[in-house]
Every structure is written in structure tokens, then in C-alpha cells.
Amino acid sequence: MTMVRWLAVAGTSLLALASTGHAQETTPIPEDAFSAFESQAPAEPSFSDAQRAEINGLIQQYIQDNPEVILQALQALQQRQQQQAHQQRTQARTTAALGSDVVDPERDPIAGDPDGSVTVVEFFDYHCPFCKRISRGMAKLAEDDDVRIVFKEFPVFGPDSVFAARAALAAKEQGLYHDFHVALMQNRGRLSERTVMRLADRVGLEVDRLREDMQSPEIEQTLRTNFQLAQQLGIRGTPSFIIEDEVIPGAIDLTTMRRLIQSKRQS
Asked: What pTM was computed for the model?
């Protein structure tokens, strides 16, 4: 990438950055299974300290020569924030209207305190890289007091994801959902059928029984319900969370998650 091209990208990125408000680490639902997940981003350019200093100077000069870009960026940011606020109010009303349809203790796998005063619902896919990134934090959150975590299997990355989700839900019948869930999340390669069953055996599941339970019509209905709920709430990628009545898209680190939970607890 040439210096001039980099400068052009950097300058126009000022507007783009403001217009998005903040980066949401969420994986959008792909149109065709694994193709989006398997594509690799191009390597980021590497610059020397001298080049970085030159780039910083060029960006400063660009802003001085085109000060209107700052106003445009602020206007775009304000519009984006207004849209987000409207969407959050709409989602909150929808969540309240759906009521018990959001969480069903009989249907949904639950970790943490089943009687916790604050409920965190996670929509995820076992092939979502951002879901995997925060999985250790979610496992630690399950150890906190007075927090209920509800897992919504949301397999959007093709047949392998659907197979893993079915297996995870079937593990609930043997009382090992959470152990299996953690194992699936920590796996760093593609979750083929063989890998899923190997992990199932490793956490102590009876594999033959697991395969049989995977065919349950209740599991099919759970997945359909999760997809319908996601559509109703405007959830378009993974991970996505519902903390009480608020829908929050994108990966959330453990510290931020605990802060949001505390805020809900005090409200």
C-alpha cells in the first residue's frame, strides 16, 4: 500500500469511524455457510517509526486543509447515536412484549445462578471467532453470584454449526451441557462431526446416547424458536446479548459485562 493511498484511506476513515459510533465485534450472518468464515483478511501493512511519523503529519495536514470533515463526522455520529437509541427502545419494548418467550428454563441451557436477579442471554455460534474470544470470560461470569446465564444456540455458519448445536443441546439430557459447551468453544479448528464426537467423549458424554438424543424434535423446535426470537429482536450476528431488557450486539469483555450487570442490578 503506497503512502498516498494510505493517506486517502486514513482521511476518509475519519468519517467512517464516526458514522459507526464504535466498533462492534460481531460476526454477521453469512449468506452462504462457511465461505464468509473461512475467508481470511489481508495482512495489515507494516510501517517503520519514520513512516508512522510521516503518516501522522499527513493526517494532521489533511484535517487542517479539510476541517469540514470533522463537522461531517460529528453530524454522522449524532445521527448514528440517535438511530441506536431508537433501536434500543424498540428492542426493549419487543423484549418486554415477548416476556417468557425470551427465556424458558425447561428449554434453554442455563449456567450460573438459576435464580439470579440479573439474566444474561447469549446468542452464539461455535464457529464464530468473536464468540470464542469471549468464551473464557463467559465461563468466569458463570461463577459469579446472582447472575443467570442463558445460552441460545444460534448456528448460522452452516451444517457443521448446526450439528454442533444439536449435539450441545442433546448433552443437556446427560447434565453435561456447560462442560461440552466450553469444550466446543475452546476448540480452535473446524468442528467436524468427528471432532464434535471426540470432544463429547472427552467430557464424559455417552456418545451413542448423544447421537440418539440429537434427533429429538424438541431440539429442532428449540433451534427454530431461537432463530425466530433473533429475528423478532433484530439480532443479525454473533455474539449478541440480552441483559435484562437490553439487546447488545457484539463481543463484550468480562469487565464490561460485569459493569453492565451491576448497572442493571441498581436500576
From this structure: 0.68
